[in-house]
């Protein structure tokens, strides 16, 4: 038996998982706090940290991170609602995204949001017009697409033709296009070069590039920058066993580089900010699922679960991220087993499929799994980020999974999203 199967991550004791209706996501707020504590220790001080709700907009997760001092980075009306539901004050919300509908901006302004990130001159003008309509003034971070890509990036965001950001070269050549408008003031720069970088050297290189670009553009724009948002890229395990990466030398490296490039940052002039979704939430979550069927198909064992790409890894089905290779922890997590525990089975390869009526609904073509039977409970670890909210929940009409939030020994919430059709308001 593999080592990981011998040492599954502990499930939350008060849940009595065998009684939990599956599929169910479990989120542990203690683990959110631990991840936040770690991430803060890798960042130079002073700096702000934005929690990117795209990783997991569950209101309890958002509220926990806000209570720890994170601001909220939202990029859709749904994420805005999630932040407001979690009682994040509008002043702590940054509204980003490469394409925003006028009504989305109106709604954010009506809610009191005044800080935006824009990706083009069109975006600046659109924001300016919206602020004028609302009789108010706003500030924006100018998102930048620098010339080169970052090494070691799990998913490179810039450096190539992209919806994200204005080209650094164009900003340098035409700075006057990017400085403020009557109702929209340039507050600073937004750089998000890459995501999911687990190596400290590569992550440091990505931030170094961001700092250099910020320094160059600061000179070109020739206006005071109040904020330099250096973005993120902090890695995390996804749907497999593993620990959060460590970046012990990062804070000192970045502090030295910031001293050179943006002296004044230690006095918050400019304020330096970072963003993270996955690092803060990946390890707080696990997905519980039951086996629905086990059969032999043309010589291969096929295990059909009660969840699939509709609840985890949907973006893999859309070819947006590499195919998932989830680590199933084995049947009947140990402390839920009747004692004595049944003897361990030797894992053998199985095709792991979900219940959807499409061949795309396959988490793994060949994954080592012990003997399992219909009804057995399995767990997929480290699914607190890009789990449910990066999946194809509406595809084929299965109910959303339960979402159960624990804090220490307490279950603080257990509910599920529902989807209803409502009349058009236009
Ligand atoms: C602008 C921006 N901020 C934050 C994030 C969050 O990334 P991660 O969850 O990898 O930290 C992303 C991810 O694509 C992003 O585009």
Q: What would you note in describing this structure?
A:
Helix 2 packs across helix 3, helix 5 packs across helix 6 and helix 8 runs parallel beside helix 9. The chain has two domains: 157 residues, Lyase, Ornithine Decarboxylase, Chain A, domain 1; 181 residues, TIM Barrel, CATH 3.20.20.10. With 426 residues, it is an alpha/beta fold. It is globular, with a radius of gyration of 23 Å. It contains eleven helices and 19 strands. The termini are far apart. The strands form three sheets. Strands 1, 13, 14, 15, 16, 17, 18 and 19 form an eight-stranded mixed β-sheet that branches. An eight-stranded parallel β-barrel has the order 2-3-4-5-6-9-11-12. The structure holds pyridoxal-5'-phosphate. Pyridoxal-5'-phosphate (PLP) binds next to strand 12 and helix 10.
């Amino acid at each position: 038996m593999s080592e990981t199967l011998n040492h599954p991550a502990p499930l939350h004791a008060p849940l009595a998982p065998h009684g939990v209706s599956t599929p169910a996501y479990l989120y542990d707020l203690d683990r959110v706090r631990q991840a936040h504590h770690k991430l803060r220790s890798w960042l130079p001080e002073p700096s702000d940290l934005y929690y990117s709700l795209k990783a997991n907009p569950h209101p309890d997760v958002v509220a926990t991170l806000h209570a720890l001092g994170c601001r909220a980075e939202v990029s859709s009306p749904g994420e805005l609602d999630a932040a407001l539901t979690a009682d994040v004050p509008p002043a702590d919300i940054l509204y980003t995204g490469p394409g925003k509908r006028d009504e989305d901006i109106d709604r954010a302004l009506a809610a009191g949001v005044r800080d935006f990130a824009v990706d083009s001159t069109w975006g600046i003008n659109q924001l300016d017009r919206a602020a004028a309509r609302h009789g108010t003034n706003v500030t924006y971070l100018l998102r930048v697409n620098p010339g080169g890509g970052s090494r070691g990036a799990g998913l490179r965001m810039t450096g190539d033709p992209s919806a994200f950001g204005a080209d650094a070269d164009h900003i340098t050549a035409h700075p006057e296009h990017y400085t403020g408008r009557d109702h929209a003031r340039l507050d600073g720069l937004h750089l998000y070069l890459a995501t999911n970088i687990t190596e400290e050297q590569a992550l440091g290189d990505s931030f170094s590039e961001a700092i250099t670009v910020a320094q160059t553009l600061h000179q070109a724009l020739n206006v005071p920058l109040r904020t330099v948002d250096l973005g993120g890229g902090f890695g995390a395990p996804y749907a497999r066993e593993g620990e959060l990466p460590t970046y012990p030398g990062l804070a000192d490296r970045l502090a030295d580089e910031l001293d050179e490039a943006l002296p004044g940052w230690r006095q918050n002039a400019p304020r330096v900010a970072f963003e993270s979704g996955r690092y803060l939430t990946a390890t707080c979550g696990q997905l519980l699922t039951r086996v629905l069927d086990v059969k032999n198909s043309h010589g291969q064992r096929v295990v059909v679960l009660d969840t699939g790409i509709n609840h985890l890894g949907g973006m893999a089905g859309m070819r947006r991220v590499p195919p998932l290779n989830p680590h199933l922890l084995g049947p009947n997590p140990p402390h839920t087993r009747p004692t004595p525990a049944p003897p361990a089975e030797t894992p053998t390869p199985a095709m792991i499929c979900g219940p959807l009526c499409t061949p795309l609904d396959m988490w793994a073509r060949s994954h080592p799994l012990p003997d399992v039977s219909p009804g057995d409970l399995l767990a997929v670890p480290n699914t607190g980020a890009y789990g449910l909210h990066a999946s194809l929940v509406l595809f084929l009409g299965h109910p959303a999974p339960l979402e159960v939030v624990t804090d220490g020994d307490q279950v603080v919430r257990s509910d599920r999203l529902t989807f209803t059709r409502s009349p058009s308001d236009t």
